[in-house]
Design a protein that fits this description.
alpha+beta; Jelly Rolls; three-stranded antiparallel beta sheet; 12 strands
Amino acid sequence: MTAQTSFEYDIAAQMAQLSEDGIIGLKNAFSPEWADEMREDMMTAFWSAIQRPGGAVGRGPRRWYVEIHPQAFRGFVDLITHPWLLDICTNVLGPDFQIVEIGLDVPFQGAKYQPWHRDFPSPVDTYRDRKITSLAFNLTGVDVTEDMGPFEVAPGTQYDDGREWKHEMFPDKSLWERFQERGTRKYPRRGDISCRSALTVHRGTEHRSPIARPVMVLGVDAPGAGHAALHDMMVTPDWYDALPDVAKKHLVCRVVTDLVPITQKHDIEGLVMGADPI
């Protein structure tokens, strides 16, 4: 199987778009067959995690988030050594960027609209200095259609201050009109990658399809951003020793003899309940 496919991009244009919109993407970064294996790994991890306390956390009705061990994802090394990902991370976060999180978000039929939100409070580097210090890469496990609760993002909101919002993450409903006006739904296909500032305001939408829509999530920080403390990636010695040097340089993890189930530390309370679709 060929993991990567043929692709071209203009890094200067990508950087400009990320600065302007807070989100960019690369079509056909991987083959559909590679993405199909990723989906298998995601769903295997989900069904294992949902059976243990703290293994899966709610992100709204019929929607869960699960952190996984890198080794549970056959394509992990392919992903973190992808030329586009390395190029974006280096240019945005600097040469010593840190890979701090790997997980998956899974909405099922019956998932509701999420409230507009960002993933964590904005640091002063971003809301004052307009500097992006963390990135979230997403890869879909299915070709997304309108009834699959597509991801909706409000471009250009990554620099919003947000200190007056609930938990500094959830704008009051009286402010939603602005995000609704900007709202853009995304319909990625298997093999595509998107990259966004985790501070760009977004939400999941209503999922009516009987087909689940698993999405792989990779979190990357600039040095000092601090989100590694919310996660606990573990790998075994043999697996770590086999990593290419570029992966060892950037992966923040513990090397352990035995992998233990992950109990998640980053629970977003405000997403537990659904929201009205306005």
